Automatic annotation (TrEMBL):
Pfam families found in the cross-reference section: Fung_rhodopsin
Name of the molecule in the record: Rhodopsin domain-containing protein
Membrane topology: Multi-pass membrane protein
Protein family according to the UniProt entry: Belongs to the SAT4 family.
Alphabetically ordered keywords of this record: Membrane, Transmembrane, Transmembrane helix
Residues passing through the membrane, by range: 34-53, 78-101, 113-142, 162-179, 191-211, 231-254
GO cellular component, one term: membrane
Subcellular location: Membrane
Native source organism of the sequence: Pseudocercospora fijiensis (strain CIRAD86)
Residues covered by the Rhodopsin domain: 18-254
Top-level taxon of the source organism: Eukaryota
Amino acid sequence: VIAVTVAMPTVAALLTSLRMYARLAVTKNAGWDDAAISVALLASIGTTVTMIAQTSHGLGQHISEVKKPDLKLYLREFWAMIIVYNISLTFTKLSILFQYLRIFPQKPFRMATFTVMGIVICYALWRFFSAVFTCVPVQAFWDHSIKHKTCQNRNALSMASTSLNMTTDIIIALLPLPVLNKLQLPSRQRFALMGVFALAGLVVIISILRLPALHVLMTSTDTTYQNPMAAIWSSIEINVGIMCSCLPTLRCLFPKIFRSA
Protein backbone atom coordinates (compact mmCIF):
# COMPACT_ATOMS: atom_id res chain seq x y z
CA VAL A 1 0.00 0.00 0.00
CA ILE A 2 2.69 2.48 1.01
CA ALA A 3 4.74 1.93 -2.17
CA VAL A 4 1.83 2.70 -4.50
CA THR A 5 0.34 5.52 -2.43
CA VAL A 6 3.73 7.27 -2.32
CA ALA A 7 4.75 6.62 -5.93
CA MET A 8 1.51 7.84 -7.50
CA PRO A 9 1.38 11.33 -5.91
CA THR A 10 5.12 11.68 -6.52
CA VAL A 11 4.60 11.32 -10.27
CA ALA A 12 1.51 13.55 -10.07
CA ALA A 13 3.54 16.18 -8.20
CA LEU A 14 6.29 16.03 -10.85
CA LEU A 15 3.84 16.61 -13.70
CA THR A 16 2.07 19.36 -11.75
CA SER A 17 5.42 21.06 -11.13
CA LEU A 18 6.21 20.90 -14.86
CA ARG A 19 2.77 22.32 -15.57
CA MET A 20 3.32 25.22 -13.19
CA TYR A 21 6.72 25.91 -14.73
CA ALA A 22 5.17 25.91 -18.19
CA ARG A 23 2.34 28.23 -17.18
CA LEU A 24 4.29 30.59 -14.89
CA ALA A 25 7.70 30.77 -16.56
CA VAL A 26 7.19 29.82 -20.22
CA THR A 27 3.74 30.86 -21.42
CA LYS A 28 3.05 33.13 -18.42
CA ASN A 29 -0.69 32.54 -18.55
CA ALA A 30 -1.59 30.65 -15.37
CA GLY A 31 -5.29 30.42 -14.66
CA TRP A 32 -8.02 28.92 -12.52
CA ASP A 33 -7.32 25.47 -13.96
CA ASP A 34 -3.81 25.59 -12.52
CA ALA A 35 -5.07 26.73 -9.12
CA ALA A 36 -7.64 23.93 -9.07
CA ILE A 37 -5.11 21.23 -9.94
CA SER A 38 -2.82 22.52 -7.17
CA VAL A 39 -5.63 22.03 -4.65
CA ALA A 40 -6.26 18.55 -6.10
CA LEU A 41 -2.58 17.66 -5.63
CA LEU A 42 -2.56 18.90 -2.02
CA ALA A 43 -5.66 16.81 -1.30
CA SER A 44 -4.00 13.83 -2.99
CA ILE A 45 -0.99 14.22 -0.70
CA GLY A 46 -3.41 14.43 2.23
CA THR A 47 -5.00 11.19 1.04
CA THR A 48 -1.57 9.55 0.98
CA VAL A 49 -0.80 10.75 4.51
CA THR A 50 -4.06 9.30 5.85
CA MET A 51 -3.47 5.99 4.06
CA ILE A 52 0.03 5.66 5.50
CA ALA A 53 -1.35 6.49 8.95
CA GLN A 54 -3.94 3.74 8.52
CA THR A 55 -1.20 1.17 7.91
CA SER A 56 0.15 2.00 11.37
CA HIS A 57 -3.22 1.34 12.99
CA GLY A 58 -4.50 -1.83 11.39
CA LEU A 59 -4.77 -1.47 7.61
CA GLY A 60 -3.98 -4.87 6.12
CA GLN A 61 -4.51 -6.75 9.40
CA HIS A 62 -7.50 -8.86 10.35
CA ILE A 63 -9.86 -6.73 12.39
CA SER A 64 -9.83 -9.32 15.20
CA GLU A 65 -6.09 -8.69 15.61
CA VAL A 66 -6.38 -4.89 15.80
CA LYS A 67 -6.47 -3.41 19.30
CA LYS A 68 -9.43 -1.15 20.11
CA PRO A 69 -7.35 2.05 20.47
CA ASP A 70 -5.73 1.35 17.09
CA LEU A 71 -9.08 0.56 15.48
CA LYS A 72 -10.44 3.87 16.71
CA LEU A 73 -7.49 5.72 15.18
CA TYR A 74 -7.80 3.70 11.96
CA LEU A 75 -11.47 4.63 11.56
CA ARG A 76 -10.77 8.30 12.24
CA GLU A 77 -8.02 8.28 9.60
CA PHE A 78 -10.32 6.42 7.20
CA TRP A 79 -12.98 9.09 7.76
CA ALA A 80 -10.44 11.83 6.99
CA MET A 81 -9.24 9.94 3.92
CA ILE A 82 -12.74 9.84 2.42
CA ILE A 83 -12.98 13.63 2.72
CA VAL A 84 -9.61 14.56 1.17
CA TYR A 85 -10.00 11.85 -1.51
CA ASN A 86 -13.25 13.44 -2.68
CA ILE A 87 -11.76 16.94 -2.54
CA SER A 88 -8.97 15.76 -4.85
CA LEU A 89 -11.45 14.22 -7.29
CA THR A 90 -13.57 17.37 -7.35
CA PHE A 91 -10.77 19.84 -8.00
CA THR A 92 -9.31 17.64 -10.74
CA LYS A 93 -12.67 17.72 -12.51
CA LEU A 94 -12.89 21.49 -12.05
CA SER A 95 -9.36 21.93 -13.39
CA ILE A 96 -10.25 20.05 -16.57
CA LEU A 97 -13.45 22.08 -17.00
CA PHE A 98 -11.61 25.38 -16.45
CA GLN A 99 -9.12 24.20 -19.06
CA TYR A 100 -11.98 23.64 -21.50
CA LEU A 101 -13.14 27.22 -20.91
CA ARG A 102 -9.62 28.46 -21.61
CA ILE A 103 -9.38 26.59 -24.92
CA PHE A 104 -12.84 26.65 -26.50
CA PRO A 105 -14.53 30.02 -27.20
CA GLN A 106 -17.79 28.62 -28.64
CA LYS A 107 -20.70 29.99 -26.60
CA PRO A 108 -22.86 26.79 -26.62
CA PHE A 109 -19.88 24.74 -25.48
CA ARG A 110 -19.04 27.21 -22.72
CA MET A 111 -22.64 27.13 -21.50
CA ALA A 112 -22.50 23.33 -21.44
CA THR A 113 -19.20 23.46 -19.55
CA PHE A 114 -20.58 25.86 -16.94
CA THR A 115 -23.59 23.56 -16.53
CA VAL A 116 -21.37 20.53 -15.95
CA MET A 117 -19.27 22.60 -13.56
CA GLY A 118 -22.40 23.42 -11.56
CA ILE A 119 -23.32 19.73 -11.44
CA VAL A 120 -19.82 18.82 -10.24
CA ILE A 121 -19.93 21.48 -7.51
CA CYS A 122 -23.38 20.35 -6.31
CA TYR A 123 -22.21 16.72 -6.26
CA ALA A 124 -19.04 17.71 -4.41
CA LEU A 125 -20.93 19.63 -1.73
CA TRP A 126 -23.31 16.71 -1.20
CA ARG A 127 -20.40 14.26 -0.99
CA PHE A 128 -18.43 16.47 1.39
CA PHE A 129 -21.24 16.94 3.88
CA SER A 130 -22.45 13.34 3.59
CA ALA A 131 -18.89 12.16 4.32
CA VAL A 132 -18.33 14.53 7.24
CA PHE A 133 -21.73 13.75 8.76
CA THR A 134 -21.88 10.04 7.95
CA CYS A 135 -22.63 9.72 11.65
CA VAL A 136 -24.17 12.25 14.02
CA PRO A 137 -22.39 13.06 16.21
CA VAL A 138 -19.39 12.98 13.85
CA GLN A 139 -17.21 11.15 16.41
CA ALA A 140 -19.53 8.14 16.25
CA PHE A 141 -17.89 7.18 12.95
CA TRP A 142 -14.78 6.07 14.82
CA ASP A 143 -15.96 5.90 18.44
CA HIS A 144 -18.33 2.94 18.71
CA SER A 145 -18.80 3.53 22.44
CA ILE A 146 -21.17 6.41 21.64
CA LYS A 147 -24.66 5.01 22.16
CA HIS A 148 -26.95 7.80 21.04
CA LYS A 149 -26.05 8.22 17.38
CA THR A 150 -27.50 8.17 13.89
CA CYS A 151 -25.42 6.79 11.02
CA GLN A 152 -26.11 6.58 7.31
CA ASN A 153 -25.86 3.34 5.35
CA ARG A 154 -22.19 3.55 4.37
CA ASN A 155 -22.47 0.97 1.60
CA ALA A 156 -25.39 2.74 -0.08
CA LEU A 157 -23.62 6.07 0.32
CA SER A 158 -20.43 4.73 -1.21
CA MET A 159 -22.21 3.17 -4.19
CA ALA A 160 -24.21 6.34 -4.86
CA SER A 161 -21.05 8.42 -4.67
CA THR A 162 -19.12 6.08 -6.97
CA SER A 163 -21.92 6.05 -9.54
CA LEU A 164 -22.20 9.85 -9.59
CA ASN A 165 -18.43 10.20 -9.74
CA MET A 166 -18.18 7.91 -12.77
CA THR A 167 -21.10 9.65 -14.49
CA THR A 168 -19.47 13.08 -14.18
CA ASP A 169 -16.14 11.65 -15.38
CA ILE A 170 -17.80 10.23 -18.51
CA ILE A 171 -19.56 13.53 -19.24
CA ILE A 172 -16.31 15.49 -18.82
CA ALA A 173 -14.39 13.08 -21.07
CA LEU A 174 -16.99 13.26 -23.86
CA LEU A 175 -17.82 16.97 -23.59
CA PRO A 176 -15.18 18.41 -25.98
CA LEU A 177 -15.23 15.61 -28.57
CA PRO A 178 -18.09 17.00 -30.74
CA VAL A 179 -16.36 20.41 -30.90
CA LEU A 180 -13.01 18.84 -31.75
CA ASN A 181 -14.59 16.72 -34.46
CA LYS A 182 -15.89 19.86 -36.20
CA LEU A 183 -12.53 21.62 -36.27
CA GLN A 184 -11.19 22.34 -39.76
CA LEU A 185 -8.00 20.35 -39.27
CA PRO A 186 -6.35 17.42 -41.01
CA SER A 187 -7.74 14.14 -39.69
CA ARG A 188 -4.45 13.22 -38.02
CA GLN A 189 -4.32 16.44 -36.00
CA ARG A 190 -8.02 16.29 -35.14
CA PHE A 191 -7.80 12.73 -33.85
CA ALA A 192 -4.60 13.54 -31.95
CA LEU A 193 -6.40 16.39 -30.19
CA MET A 194 -9.37 14.15 -29.43
CA GLY A 195 -6.98 11.57 -27.98
CA VAL A 196 -5.35 14.13 -25.69
CA PHE A 197 -8.67 15.34 -24.29
CA ALA A 198 -10.06 11.81 -24.06
CA LEU A 199 -7.32 11.03 -21.53
CA ALA A 200 -9.94 11.89 -18.92
CA GLY A 201 -11.56 8.61 -19.92
CA LEU A 202 -8.66 6.77 -18.26
CA VAL A 203 -10.05 7.81 -14.90
CA VAL A 204 -13.36 6.18 -15.80
CA ILE A 205 -11.56 2.92 -16.61
CA ILE A 206 -9.71 3.04 -13.29
CA SER A 207 -12.97 3.74 -11.45
CA ILE A 208 -14.42 0.61 -13.05
CA LEU A 209 -11.35 -1.42 -12.07
CA ARG A 210 -11.76 -0.10 -8.51
CA LEU A 211 -15.33 -1.40 -8.22
CA PRO A 212 -14.51 -5.07 -7.34
CA ALA A 213 -12.19 -3.99 -4.51
CA LEU A 214 -14.83 -1.55 -3.29
CA HIS A 215 -17.50 -4.25 -3.40
CA VAL A 216 -15.32 -6.65 -1.38
CA LEU A 217 -14.69 -3.93 1.20
CA MET A 218 -18.35 -2.99 1.53
CA THR A 219 -19.58 -6.57 1.92
CA SER A 220 -16.87 -7.66 4.36
CA THR A 221 -16.93 -7.53 8.13
CA ASP A 222 -13.12 -7.69 8.11
CA THR A 223 -12.73 -4.17 6.75
CA THR A 224 -9.17 -3.50 7.89
CA TYR A 225 -7.98 -6.63 6.07
CA GLN A 226 -9.98 -6.01 2.87
CA ASN A 227 -9.28 -2.28 2.53
CA PRO A 228 -5.74 -2.28 1.03
CA MET A 229 -6.81 -2.96 -2.57
CA ALA A 230 -9.53 -0.32 -2.42
CA ALA A 231 -6.97 2.13 -0.99
CA ILE A 232 -4.48 1.35 -3.76
CA TRP A 233 -7.06 1.82 -6.52
CA SER A 234 -8.27 5.04 -4.90
CA SER A 235 -4.73 6.42 -4.92
CA ILE A 236 -4.26 5.42 -8.55
CA GLU A 237 -7.59 6.99 -9.50
CA ILE A 238 -7.03 10.46 -8.05
CA ASN A 239 -3.41 10.71 -9.17
CA VAL A 240 -3.98 9.48 -12.72
CA GLY A 241 -6.70 12.12 -12.93
CA ILE A 242 -4.17 14.79 -11.95
CA MET A 243 -1.63 13.44 -14.45
CA CYS A 244 -4.15 13.40 -17.30
CA SER A 245 -5.16 16.97 -16.49
CA CYS A 246 -1.53 18.09 -16.66
CA LEU A 247 -0.43 16.37 -19.87
CA PRO A 248 -2.12 18.74 -22.37
CA THR A 249 -0.45 21.72 -20.68
CA LEU A 250 3.09 20.41 -21.28
CA ARG A 251 3.08 20.98 -25.05
CA CYS A 252 5.33 24.03 -24.81
CA LEU A 253 7.95 22.03 -22.89
CA PHE A 254 7.98 19.04 -25.23
CA PRO A 255 7.06 20.38 -28.69
CA LYS A 256 8.43 17.38 -30.59
CA ILE A 257 6.30 14.93 -28.63
CA PHE A 258 3.15 17.05 -28.97
CA ARG A 259 3.83 18.19 -32.54
CA SER A 260 1.03 16.07 -34.03
CA ALA A 261 -1.49 17.81 -31.73
